[in-house]
Design brief:
9 helices; PmbA/TldD fold; 2 domains
Length: 429
């Protein structure tokens, strides 16, 4: 079938093309409490075609893409490709070229059987410490093995094999007539029993504390701590602003060799791209455009060292070895977690909604569960109200723990402290 795709693309009049063929085998399990409700196996294939067409004068290059059924007929494929070439001719981007083949050491990943992966997850979930009032409501387990093949008109033909797993968890906590649900989605390569168990038991504790919260007090000039996955949005802001797309569009103001903030009183920040991250579902040799993924320091002590991103915007910036980041690490913390958790502060662990805008840096979050520390050593569970602010205002006063925590394909400080956020508490009537 792939030979037919290539034959038709070469004859289509497209100036360049790409094919991504993804085949996934997986097992899925759906549990109510610990009772298996249903399970199923899947074996699916997705093929995406992307064509490129130059304008008659060569001043523009357009693209168009579509997912195509693996069982599509020759006549059907010819029509789809003809339509894509036409659509691409209407798009007017500045010209650029596709990635050429580059010799690189392939990422080697040990693939376990779906049976082994599923068994590890089920054993792990059965080992969670529960009580009559804090327990697992339901959970869904997805274990997959994927083969991804990328072919383009420049001669790239790369096939990757990798595992990916997902765990959806709903926990319940109840107290008399009151009951609360909390939710988590975990993505990983293979099951990390210790991490999953620790995280879910932490979530059960959050559920218990959420039942006894008081309204968030009206407070000002207080540091806010982040110690759960919401902190990913904080660090994604920096990764976004190192991306060629935001730089070309004039959204990012980052410049190579220049600090991202003046008079930094807090911790300086270092972000690295890493090819191989144990436990990640995103350990690839190449990105989805065929560019080799590299170990690279992107931001060093708050100074941009390297910009990255997709082929089009990278070429517009003149970047010669750019790529889309898959795994990444953040470091730079100078204090231990215990040192950050001192004095008066608010530690928010559950949000109804939390956002950090990658373009403006605006921060907003609705507090579902937080711990208010008044400076005496006591911690009061609170809920309600919100936090707001902007990342640019916090660049000079951001503190990170030495200890780290992994979420899927990212490793970030276990605790992050921002000093210039506004906390809107709940007014008491």
């Amino acid at each position: 079938m792939m030979d037919l795709f290539i034959e038709l693309l070469k004859a289509s009049g497209a100036d360049a093309w790409e094919i991504i063929d993804t085949k996934t085998e997986g097992w899925e399990f759906y549990f109510i409490r610990h009772k298996l409700d249903q399970n199923r196996a899947k074996d699916v294939e997705h093929i995406t075609l992307k064509v490129y067409k130059k304008s008659p004068d060569g001043n523009f290059l357009g693209t168009a893409s579509a997912e195509v059924s693996p069982t599509e007929t020759r006549e059907g494929l010819e029509k789809i490709i003809e339509n894509l070439v036409y659509q691409a001719s209407l798009v007017k981007n500045k010209p650029y070229t596709l990635n050429p083949p580059v010799r690189t050491e392939p990422v080697s990943i040990t693939l376990r059987s779906l049976k082994e992966e599923a068994a590890d997850f089920i054993r792990t979930m059965n080992s969670i410490s529960e009580t009559e009032t804090e327990y697992l409501n339901s959970y869904e387990i997805f274990v997959n093995q994927t083969e991804r093949r990328l072919i383009n008109s420049e001669g790239i033909d790369v096939t990757e094999h990798y595992p990916s797993s997902m765990l959806d968890v709903v926990v319940n906590a109840r107290n008399g007539e009151h009951e609360i649900e909390l939710y988590r989605l975990y993505e990983m390569g293979s099951c990390d029993t210790g991490k999953v168990k620790e995280d879910i038991e932490e979530l059960l504790k959050f559920g218990k504390d959420r039942l006894v919260t008081k309204p968030t007090p009206v407070i000002s000039d207080i540091p806010v701590l982040f110690s759960t996955d919401a902190a990913l949005s904080i660090y994604s802001y920096f990764l976004d602003n190192l991306n060629a797309a935001l730089l070309v569009r004039g959204i990012s103001s980052f410049k190579i060799g220049e600090k991202i903030a003046e008079n930094i009183e807090g911790d300086s920040l270092t972000i690295e791209s890493v090819r191989i991250l144990p436990g990640s579902p995103a350990c690839f040799t190449c990105d989805v455009e065929g560019a080799p993924i590299r170990d690279a320091v992107l931001l060093k002590e708050s100074v941009p060292m390297k910009f990255v991103g997709g082929r089009m915007f990278s070429q517009y910036l003149g970047l010669t070895d750019s790529f889309n980041v898959s795994n990444w690490k953040v470091s730079g913390g100078t204090r231990k977690v215990a040192e950050l958790r001192t004095g008066r502060f608010l530690e928010v662990v559950e949000f109804s909604d939390f956002q950090v805008d990658g373009m403006t840096g605006d921060i907003f979050g609705e507090i579902r569960l937080a711990y208010y520390h008044d400076g005496t050593g006591a911690a009061t569970p609170v809920s309600g109200g919100s936090i707001s602010g902007n990342m640019t205002e916090n660049l000079s006063c951001m503190y990170m723990s030495k200890e780290t925590r992994q979420y899927s394909n990212a490793v970030i400080p276990a605790v992050t402290r921002l000093d210039k956020l506004t906390v809107s508490g709940v007014e008491q009537g």
